[in-house]
Amino acid sequence: MAERLANRLKDRRSELGLTQAELAERVGVTRKTVNTVENGVFTPSATLAIKLAAALELSIEQLFWIER
Amino acid sequence: MTERSITERAEFLSRRRARMLPFLAVIFLSQQATYFSTPDRSPHSADHVKIAAWLVLSAVLVAAMATKGFWLQPKEIRDLIDDENTRANRLDAMRWGFLFTMAAGVAVYFLTMFEPISAREAVHVTTSAGIVSALVRWGVLEKRAHRDG
Fold it and tell me: Is the Cβ of A31 closer than 8 Å to some Cβ of chain B?
């Protein structure tokens, strides 16, 4: 069965009142990368996932999970 | 340059590249059309200017795909533009380029059983197939990545 990495990036970002560009700036990537991770188009590396979780003040498990 | 202006500049350049990639593929393809529409392409009659133009453009495009590109921009902007998603797209485009080069190589090899093709033409076709396919693939991936979802 296909597995995919789901996330609550958009919800959490909205909760904190951040735009994609602001979040991108915090983690040192372009807005495009945040956009693709948010939409599930791109699976981030462990490094980027950790940076995103830290920027959004969540643990990785709270931010990402595997959906079957 | 401030942090804000670096990210804004990187975003602007990244979007512009996404728009330019399909155009570059079309320009490159049209250059091949003029080369192959020349009736006599024997080694002695070959237009050296056309060949040199193709070689230079091919080398520049391959170098742009193999490196971060934007060679005239400051390092921090180049690093930011070539972030994780861009690297993944770039590598996927190069994978497509490799596959299309191989497919073109097989097709040219097959064609030589029916019609003689010079080594120069064979290299021209296979290289061009690889570059065009990689450019198109990269353009599609970059446009998709920029699209708000």
Answer: yes
Q: Is the pLDDT of residue B45 over 60?
A: no
Compute the CA torsion angle B24, B28, B34, B39 (nearest 10 deg).
Answer: -160
Interface residue A30 vs chain B (CB under 8 A) = yes
Domain spans of chain A, in order of start:
4-60
Question: Which of B7, B81, B88 comes nearest A24 by C-beta?
Answer: B7
In the structure encoding, which two tokens stand for residue B111, read together? 């064609």
Q: Which CATH superfamily is domain A4-60 in?
A: lambda repressor-like DNA-binding domains (1.10.260.40)
Q: Would an 8 Å CB–CB cutoff place A46 in contact with chain B?
A: no
- Write b or e for each residue in B94-130: b if 16 or more Cβ atoms lie within 10 A of its Cβ, otherwise e: bebbeebbeebbeebeeeeeeeeeeeeebebbbbbbb
pLDDT in tens, B109-134: 999 999 999 998 899 999 999 999 99
